[in-house]
What we know:
230 residues; disordered N terminus; 2 helices; 7-stranded antiparallel β-sheet; globular
Amino acid sequence: xxxxxxxxxxxxxxxxxxxxxxxxxxxxxxxxxxxxxxxxxxxxxxxxxxxxxxxxxxxxxxxxxxxxxxxxxxxxxxxxxxxxxxxxxxxxxxxxxxxxxxxxxxxxxxxxxxxxxxxxxxxxxxxxxxxxxxxxxxxxxxxxxxxxxxxxxxxxxxxxxxxxxxxxxxxxxxxxxxxxxxxxxxxxxxxxxxxxxxxxxxxxxxxxxxxxxxxxxxxxxxxxxxxxxx
Length: 230
């Protein structure tokens, strides 16, 4: 075999191997699954608050703490709920206790040049004061898992399912993400940008509250929707 033919064959083999690896990597990423809102648009309630935030309540974290300045407002032009992130650690609670339900919300951080550690969260099945909480972690190219303080055998314990995250699908600060938190009997599931990424199968709290966290970063929330399950 001539040198030029051997070189061409070598290049062809390398290209085939590279393409094979690329396909293998692509195949390991979960195929996109529609959100509950996309698959069935019926039965949803838009719960984005009005300008006065009626129907929502600020709760300090921890519950025994004090609230800082008012850091939540609704942008009428963009139809987004905005947290300025400069009023201390708290959560904004939707004031209806819920049983089985799906909480749909889209969010994005306002990027801060040179900064890391973006942090916020979306809650489901919390107690009214937030002493029991189940949070879907929100970050920049991080998060997408449940953690919280929850009753286990009647005793409040910390859970953290970060190491059990099925796939990292959260986008970086400045991009919009979509979360759907579903509570169905004891099972809590989290859908992130096209796939289920986290599940907690032993939630002993059968009713609770949904909400959004403020933790030092400016963040916007839009398409805040609720579907109660029968």
